[in-house]
Amino acid sequence: MIPLAEIEAARKRLAGAIVRTPLVRLELVDAPAEIYLKLENLQPIGAFKLRGAGNALLLASPDQLEQGVWTASAGNMAQGLAWWARRLGVHCTVVLPDTAPETKIAAIRRLGADMIPVTFEEWHEVFRTRTFAGLDGLHVHAFSDDAVMAGNGTIALEILEDLPEVDAIVAPYGGGGLSCGIASAIRALSPSCRVFAAEVATAAPLAPSLEAGHPVQVDYTPSFVDGIGSPEVFPEMFELARELLDGVLVAELAEVEDAVRLLAERARVVAEGAGAVPVALARSGAAGTGKVVCVVSGGNIDASKLAEILGGSSSPM
Q1: Could you tell me if 37 and 60 are in contact, meaning their C-beta atoms sit under 8 angstroms apart?
Q2: Fewer Cβ atoms within 10 Å of its own Cβ: the N or the C terminal residue of the chain?
Q3: CB of 187 within 8 A of CB of 213?
Q4: Tally: H helices and E strands in the chain
């Protein structure tokens, strides 16, 4: 568990640079719970990753930053690290899968980072090895990093300030850094609040892993929900998830597509697939009753894909 003191220190470290995002009620008369949206899509890069990336770089020494920084990312951590690297005046390189959406590639390019596209399999392996040939700078892991998780945990501090009586928090699960960072703070400050990880059915390794009691491999099918999902749970993150989370909830692709449309039409919120997964689950009743906070983790969805979803003519894939 990430110590509360580290999460509180991260908040002070990040103050003035990131947005303290609003928590707003999603008005649905037929919802099984009071649903609230933690709008991390309103960060300068359109995603929560700015918190963890910033905390990691602000903790690094000048010597560690001298040769630049790098990460492996499908897009949002890449933007977070590139944003901070530009702010701190250091070079940033990103290893990204050749399936990354164009909107995220364009954003990384605008932020001035170098990009190394590789196959999905090569990219995924970097999370395990934490190395890549030719890159010698400071590596910031997208999720399995204490400083990154402490930065992510600052989301929980803000939620508890705005809604002390929160009953449940639903956070997207990609590698686990977001949900485990949030759960670390919640366990220390409001243990009665449940924290659920949210997965999409086409790439949901955590649910069967928790059921089996150990990490298992699953079939991975790429979809428009590109910000989360994996063929496997990494062992160190499995142990954290098993200790900290109250469970994992899995949404179908069609439910996520409906949630993207709902957020845009009812709340005027643009959410990428991963950011809409918690809303799909809360809306279905999977997260229970009471006051349920959905972490809208990001809004970096390709405009063409959003238009298809809003027009009701798209396939969920």
Answers
A1: no
A2: C
A3: no
A4: 13, 10
In the CATH hierarchy, which top-level class contains the domain 50-139? alpha beta
How many Å apart are CA 90 and CA 29, to the nearest integer? 49
Q: How many residues does the chain have?
A: 317
**Rounded (10°) CA dihedral 276, 279, 284, 288:** 140
* Integer Cα distance of 49 and 111 in angstroms: 14
The gap from C-alpha 200 to its chain's centroid, in whole angstroms, comes to 13
Q: How far apart are CA 41 and CA 63, in angstroms?
A: 33
pTM: 0.95
Cα 76 to Cα 47, 101, 107: the distances in Å are 6, 11, 9
Query: pLDDT per residue over 62-98, tens digit each?
Result: 999 999 999 999 889 999 999 999 999 999 999 999 9
* Closest by Cα among 316, 307, 315 to 273: 316
Measure the CA–CA gap between 184 and 3, rounded to whole angstroms.
Answer: 7
Q: What are the Cα distances from residue 307, in Å, to 157, 244, 257?
A: 34, 37, 12
Please compute, for residue 108, the number of CA atoms within 13 A of its CA located in the half-sphere on the CB side: 28
A 10 A CB-CB count for 299 gives 24
CA atoms of 23 and 166, how far apart (whole Å) = 12
For 199, list phi and psi in degrees, rounded to 5.
-120, 165
Domain boundaries, the chain: 4-48+146-311, 50-139
Domains 4-48+146-311 and 50-139 equal at CATH topology level? yes
Q: Are 59 and 150 in contact (CB under 8 A)?
A: no
The per-residue pLDDT for range 130-153, each reduced to its tens digit, is 999 999 999 999 999 999 999 999
